[in-house]
TrEMBL record:
Assigned protein family: Belongs to the peptidase C26 family.
Protein name: folate gamma-glutamyl hydrolase
Enzyme class (EC, first level): hydrolase
Signal peptide residue numbers: 1-24
Organism: Aldrovandia affinis
């Protein structure tokens, strides 16, 4: 028979819309800290300071759902990354434009990906979220190949076409039904990518098919590509679209959407991922050590309303 404490935890988790997990033994960490991976600066960025950056919209995105953020800088040693992995409760791989096999972003991603696989296999819960380039990076890490193909999706908002697998998705089951309807019927997912994982290439690759469940697809009118997916056995999630842009980026161009439903979609994706991070029991060795790593030690740089990222954090 369940104890009253367990019953209370289950009810509390359901009430707060936080998925209950056997892996976490119902112990939730209500002070989650999520790492966001930096990447090499955009070529020609006149605001660049140092060698790498993180768009501030990703930081705000996670903070809006109740997490704190630690920047994961590139060009660090494996030992530093291992130490940081055991201190944070999840990893977000952001969008951008770097080489998915040769960049420092790619190198760091692989280190954390491998650590996360090993940890989760040992019942040490650690979630990963990939957005746009992060989605693409996860496919490269899982398949050991770059299977991306060019699509006409550089600046366009699209509805999602949900697959039958979406009905049993860990991610989507937390979304209100009216929001799922909006996502499937309205042009509210922002796409800013030239490369995509085609449904054809996914289907032909055994490693990807065994690892990921496809939750939604899209088309550029010529090619079908995967837009949302989650791993079967691991708490890994990926979207080819940009949920963080609707509430936090303001460049005036096609593909940018600021409707109420798009903002709700942003919050529910962030809320879900933060709830996954709450299942991780990793922590820093001390409050002082934690304070030293937090994003609050850095100041974002305003790049102007005509910039693709309104604000960036820069790192040496």
């Amino acid at each position: 028979m369940c104890s009253s404490a367990v019953v209370f935890a289950v009810l509390a988790a359901l009430y707060c819309n936080v998925p209950v997990s056997v892996e976490s033994n119902l112990r939730l960490n209500y002070r989650p800290i999520i790492g966001i991976l930096a990447q090499e600066n955009i070529l020609g960025d006149p605001h660049a300071q140092g060698s790498s950056y993180i768009a501030a919209s990703y930081v705000k995105y996670l903070e809006s759902a109740g997490a704190r953020v630690v920047p994961i800088r590139i060009n660090r040693t494996n030992e530093e990354y291992v130490k940081l992995f055991h201190s944070i409760n999840g990893l977000l791989l952001p969008g951008g434009d770097v080489d998915l096999q040769k960049s420092q972003y790619s190198r760091s991603s692989k280190i954390f990906y491998d650590l996360a696989i090993k940890a989760n296999d040992a019942s040490d819960y650690f979630p990963i979220w990939g957005t746009c380039q992060g989605f693409q990076q996860l496919t490269v890490l899982t398949s050991s190949k770059n299977l991306l193909t060019l699509t006409d999706t550089k600046a366009v908002a699209l509805p999602l076409t949900f697959t039958p697998a979406a009905q049993n998705s860990r991610l989507l089951k937390t979304f209100p039904k009216d929001l799922l309807q909006s996502l499937s019927a309205e042009n509210i997912t922002s796409n800013f990518h030239s490369w995509s994982l085609s449904l054809q290439n996914f289907t032909r690759n055994v490693k990807l098919k065994r690892f990921y469940k496809v939750l939604s697809i899209n088309t550029d009118s010529k090619k079908e590509f995967i837009s949302t997916m989650e791993a079967y056995r691991y708490p890994f999630y990926a979207v080819q679209w940009h949920p963080e842009k609707s509430p936090f980026e303001w460049i005036d161009k096609p593909g940018m959407v600021h409707t109420l439903s798009s903002i709700r979609a942003s919050f529910h994706t962030a809320s879900f991922f933060v709830s996954e991070a709450m299942k991780s029991q990793h922590s820093f060795s001390s409050p002082r050590e934690e304070e030293k790593y937090l994003i609050y030690n850095y100041s974002p740089v305003f790049r102007g309303l005509s910039s693709v990222f309104v604000q960036n954090y820069y790192f040496d």
